């Protein structure tokens, strides 16, 4: 059972990862989900993950600024696919590498999420 924050995108993330660093906060929605079928729901979910920063962050920042709150909120979202990358690539033709989909069978998938976050700078 996940939280339904983005109901129109069929995105019900099971996990919310929240990092605080000074006046910046990074909120990351994580959804462990398979991508074996190319359905409209899967496409919408994938698009939300790719575009959450440009579609939702400005609205949140504007509301905070109106209330005199100086905290910067950074958003991100990832699908953690239990379906292997080869199957997803074959099913979703043209899915870019930086697609906010990570693969659970990849031992570095958690690091891949962290390296994509605006608030975190990992040494590679």
Give me some keywords for this one:
single chain, 124 residues, alpha/beta, 4-stranded mixed beta sheet, 4 strands, elongated
Short summary:
The protein is of the alpha/beta class and about 120 residues long. The chain contains three helices and four strands.
Report on the architecture of this protein.
The protein has 124 residues and is an alpha/beta fold. The chain has helices spanning 40-66, 85-91, 109-115, and strands at 15-21, 24-32, 72-81, 101-103. It contains three helices and four strands. It has a four-stranded mixed β-sheet with strand order 1-2-3-4. A hairpin with a 2-residue loop joins strand 1 and strand 2. The radius of gyration is 15 Å and the shape is elongated.
Helix content: 25-40%
The H-and-E topology, N to C, reads as: EEHEHEH
Instruction: Give the overall average pLDDT.
Output: 78
Which strand order do you get reading across the main beta sheet? 1-2-3-4
Q: Report low-confidence residues grouped into runs of 5 or more.
A: none
Describe the biggest sheet?
Answer: 4 strands, mixed
Determine the number of helices (DSSP H or I, runs of at least 4 residues): 3
**Gyration radius, in Å:** 15 Å
Strand proportion: 15-25%
- Give the helix/strand class: alpha/beta
Number of strands: 4
State the distance separating the first and last CA atoms.
Answer: 35 Å
> What would the principal axes of the Cα set say about the shape?
elongated
Helix/strand layout:
Elements: E1 15-21, E2 24-32, H1 40-66, E3 72-81, H2 85-91, E4 101-103, H3 109-115
Parallel strand pairs: 2-3, 3-4
Antiparallel strand pairs: 1-2
